[in-house]
Input
Amino acid sequence: MALRSDWSQRNCSMARGLDIFGDPWGMLVLREVFFGNGRFDTMKTRLQVADSVLTRRLAALVESGLLAKQPYDDGGRTRHEYVLTAKGEDALPVLNAVVIWSEKHLQAPSERAHMYVIHATCGQRTGSADSCTECGEQLTAGNTSWHSLTRSEEPVPLATAPKHTDKPTNRVQGGGEEGTAA
Output
């Protein structure tokens, strides 16, 4: 997925991981897909990104196996939306860690510019990227919500990878208000 330097063959696991996760646009694209926004136009609007940038990031995430393209009919022609793969779903703790670290260490520009990781099973906000700090259960895309105050007053359940089907199992459609906020 290297868009700058190819670190995919490095002897360091962190370097190989950064080959995929080291690009901010790629991480933001994954955020949108987890929020259930897998269509190009929706991502473009939410991210306020150029077509060429989004196209390259989507192609790189598909090539790296984190996303898959799925056809849909927009009423006049067949188009593609992007869905998580099992490998992409496994990236959830990485995104959770960025959110949790940012909330802990970076000042938000406004009261609404916060995003929290919520364990949907017990309903509690967690301070851990991979397990609930309240009840200890492992976090998965199926039991985790993100609460972005700029998107919704309520936590948004995350999209999951399709399970042996051609249809995505996104539990949300649209992901809330338009704009660049999380």
Q: What stands out?
A: The CA atoms of residues 117 and 146 lie 5 Å apart. Strands lie at 67-73, 78-84, 115-119, 124-125, 144-148, 156-157.
